[in-house]
Amino acid sequence: MIIAVDFDGTIHGGSYPSIGYLFPDVRKTISSLRANGHYVIIWTCRTGQDLLEAINWLLENKIEFDRINDNHPSNIANYGGNTRKIFADLYIDDKQVGELPKWDKIEEYIINNTLNTNKL
Q1: Which of 99, 113, 96, 120 minimizes the C-alpha distance to 5?
Q2: Per-residue tens of pLDDT for the chain, all 120 residues
Q3: Going by fewer Cβ within 10 Å, which terminus of the chain is more open, N or C?
Q4: In a domain, 119, yes or no
Q5: Domain containing 66 — which CATH number?
Q6: How far apart are CA 31 and CA 113, in angstroms?
């Protein structure tokens, strides 16, 4: 499964352009998802120096990911190009309807709802 994860307000508790503290269980959850065959794309509106700072912060905090603001290669091939909109099977974002669940609940939801679906 391709999972797009927003950066600001979802992975960290800061207010753009600042980068705040790492939310509890983010590292463990994302690492576990990737270990179980899911493809994680960091999905952010950051560009330029702000994006570079976010990438460095992710690396320093050992947050695993497969791509940032870039589609999975199979989707690029399927659609004949790399669209601006990131395709994912699931989006994790603090701006979703309702509130962002805690990361352990996000992991539980994904595990319980993907047992019979194909992963990448």
Answers
A1: 96
A2: 999 999 999 999 998 999 999 999 999 999 999 999 999 999 999 999 999 999 999 999 999 999 999 999 999 999 889 988 899 999 999 999 889 999 999 999 999 987 655 555
A3: C
A4: no
A5: 3.40.50.1000
A6: 18
Q: How far is CA 69 from CA 7, 48, 93, 109, in A?
A: 11, 12, 14, 24
Q: Which residue range(s) make up the domain with 66?
A: 2-113
Question: 20: exposed, middle or buried (C-beta count within 10 Å: 0-12, 13-18, 19+)?
Answer: middle
Please tell me whether the peptide bond between 24 and the residue prior to it is cis, using omega within 30 degrees of 0. no
* Residue 4 bridge partners (DSSP): 41, 91
